[in-house]
Amino acid sequence: MRRSITSAFLAVVGLSVCACAGETSSATGGDVPLPTIGLGSDVGEVGQIGSGIDVRAVGTTEIDTVIMVGDSITVASTPQLETMFEQLGFDSVVIESKEGKRTALSFGSNPSGAAVAEDLIKTIHATGDTGAEGAAGDPFDHSNELWVVALGTNDIDQYSDPSERAAAINEMLQTVPDESPLVWVDTFFRDRPDGTAELNDTIRDRVTQRGDSVIASWSAVADDDGNLRNDGVHPREQGSIVFANIVGNAIIDFLQLA
Fold first, then answer.
1. What is the pTM of this model?
2. Which of 56, 92, 152, 236 is 20 to 30 A (C-alpha) from 99?
3. How far apart are the C-alpha atoms of 78 and 99, rounded to whole Å?
4. Is residue 39 one of the residues assigned to a domain?
5. What's 83's DSSP letter?
6. What is the spatial distance between Cα 107 and Cα 128, in angstroms, rounded to a whole number?
7. Helix/strand/coil for 17
8. Backbone phi, then psi, for 183, in 5-degree steps?
9. How confident is the model at residue 47 (pLDDT cuts 50, 70, 90)?
């Protein structure tokens, strides 16, 4: 039985809000992947805030499912993300992530984010195994799904032309169902500031043109003290909590937190 995200959120104590929520939109190829450093610390607890909050779903459709596609940053933060999604009251949570994942380039046994999204949608249409079924249980109706994309880290400095970066982002955007709201988490790579800025500018440009979308700004807080490992990319335990909070804040704001 589907449960309202609003009542579910009110039934728990919510996620800690400790950073900016994001930027909303009102408009309707590369070389080998970057190396990924192994991750291996225990995870912490997502923080808490008061519960006297009203959350309204986007538009008039109940949002009861979240589907997230990410890379190693998501891998490192999955326990915190799962806790946050549970506290927000989602009935169905699907997180697909892998180290080194590119936005639009598949290599070896690591399909691109776009390919992963396509496979997830095919699965939903064929079997509904994810539980992500829209109005009246129609698996072809994705209006009840919130999509979260946390890709791009492994695309930094991998494209020689701005049009190639835009094409990669567009390929991912085209796989997200038109009727589904979208949160895209931007990137951070300490040792590649120019490449990071270029890619984030492209993400912001393409996502804001999609409409019904928001940017969650991981780049705004990623390099705060204690968040990142020595590689300047992957989160420590504290950084994983902050990453989940950034995603949660963007969702709360996007779903019109009163």
1. 0.77
2. 92
3. 12
4. no
5. H
6. 27
7. coil
8. -115, 125
9. very low
- Does residue 170 sit in helix, strand or coil? helix
Report d(CA 94, CA 69) in Å as an integer: 8
38 found inside a domain? no
Domain membership flag for residue 6 = no
| Contact between residue 57 and residue 5 where contact means Cβ atoms under 8 Å apart | yes
In one-letter notation, the amino acid at residue 63 is: I
Question: Is there a domain that residue 133 lies in?
Answer: yes
* 204 backbone dihedrals φ, ψ, rounded to 5°: -60, -45
Residue 94 phi/psi, 5° resolution? -125, 120
Q: What is the pLDDT of residues 215-256, one digit of tens each?
A: 999 999 999 999 999 999 999 999 999 999 999 999 999 987
Q: Which residues contact 193 (CB under 8 A, 6 or more apart)?
A: none
CATH number for the domain that contains residue 218: 3.40.50.1110
Domain residues for 240?
Answer: 20-25+60-254
Q: How much is the average pLDDT of 39-63?
A: 37
Phi and psi torsions of 131, nearest 5°:
85, 0
| Residues 117/95, Cβ–Cβ less than 8 Å | no
pLDDT of residue 44 exceeding 90, the answer is: no
Number of domains in the chain: 1
Q: Are 82 and 75 in contact (CB under 8 A)?
A: no
User: Which amino acid type is present at position 138?
Assistant: D
